Structure prediction request, 525 residues.
Amino acid sequence: MTLIAFDTSMPTVTAGLAGGGSAIREGPAQRELMPAVNGLIGEAGLGWRDVKAIGVGVGPGSFTSLRIGVATARGLAQAYGAELRPLSSLWALAQNIDAARGLAVIDARRGEVFAALYEGGEAVFGPWVGPPEQLPEACSGALAAGDGSVRFRDVLEGAGVEIPPDGDPVHRIQGPALCALAERARAVPAEAVLPEYLRSPDVG
Amino acid sequence: MNPSLILGIETSCDDTCAALVTEQGEVRSNVVASQGLIHEKYGGVVPEIASRRHLELLDAVMADALEGAGATLEDVDRIAVTRGPGLIGALLVGVAEAKALAAARGLPLTPVDHLHGHVVAGTLGPDAVEAPYLCLVASGGHTFIARVEEPSSYTVLGSTLDDAAGEAFDKGARILGLGYPGGPAIQKAAENGDPEAFDFPRSYPGELDFSFSGLKTSLLYKVRDGAGPVEDLAASYQRAIVDALATRLGQAARREGIDRLAIGGGVAANAELRERLEGAAIPPFELCTDNAAMIAGAARFLPAVEYPGYLDLDASARIHA
Prediction:
């Protein structure tokens, strides 16, 4: 079954075609996402009519960027009735971590992070949003990934978290891992595919 | 053979809209999911809430528009989407979905200036206004007079230097404790008031520009000084806004030598303004407020970007044309 998956939770766009290519592009989702996914379909000699399932990262992450991801997924799915499979962006990031305990950390701006701690394939803490200083002690000794762990390296390392070097690919969601998650994920009705914001709208 | 159908999508502010319009300008469906009540308690549109609601509503609104037109995606020949101006996060929901749907189906896409949509809304339907004409667009975010030589573009002759007319209604209603949105609230209170009870200032800056901020301040002072009743204040305040709009449009018509007039934007729903501009082409209410039929309607006069030329199309909070 032809499946594509993409994620826009961080300032990079990740896209992958199951059993095919993958792409990571720098830049805003509104400019990079459609060229990326359309390119993958084209390079594989496929058309959108062939795509039967679409996996989409629903965050947490940048609100606007997540909405672009979800709206794009819905538009693509509507075209020929492909099914939609929402994916946790933190769990997708955690796929990169080769350790017993993995801490996925996405920069949430305003001095905060979106984070989740995974152990044996399950979230034992989070998804959560808050200042990195307030991550629980249980994160000590975990191996971290994500742009949030890079930005708050000092705070997290001070709390006993291990963080790969800044440029390490572990900090970005990878296309093949995203596709693997999507292949195992459940399809849900389009209206139920919504970003996981974790924060209330700012009404000030 | 069926006429070509354009699917219009509009998410620039707080209304989630989709519509189907033929290339000949027949409105087959025009669906608007208003978020007004959600924003009412905040006294104005909250951008993040509006963006979230657009995403929740857009699929259903598009499905309703197709169903209302008795059409399926198979019948759609082109997609038109509001590119701006507006709330950037809100615009991006519509632009992202429009691009994805158009690309997957290999359809051409026309990005549309929201204001162009208002300017040419009067060209839709059986009583279509014919160019050349002048159009007053007055809404919560914009107030300007445009000259339309050909419906593919427009020239702004004058615009507000501060608040938009709809904003003046909203702010006035808030000062008077009448709720949101302000236009209908003030109009209702004004029904039982004397429009000449208070002499509010009319401001005529430049040649054909508008200014409403002094008006709002004047109302604030009167309320602070205990003036009333609220019905008289509302009626006089509304009269001042309508006066400014109608006077400017009249001046523009004389200066330009064009007597065909049209109005658009949410304030065009105001009964007193409609009465004052008798003879102008006033589109039905649902084509005046934000809607997607006017976006698809404007697209009729604009070039379409063929697939895949629009894949990296971005929204713009402040575009013009």
Q: What stands out?
A: Residues 16 and 22 of chain A are 4 Å apart (CA to CA). The helical segments of chain A are 29-43, 63-80, 89-94, 147-151, 153-158, 175-184.
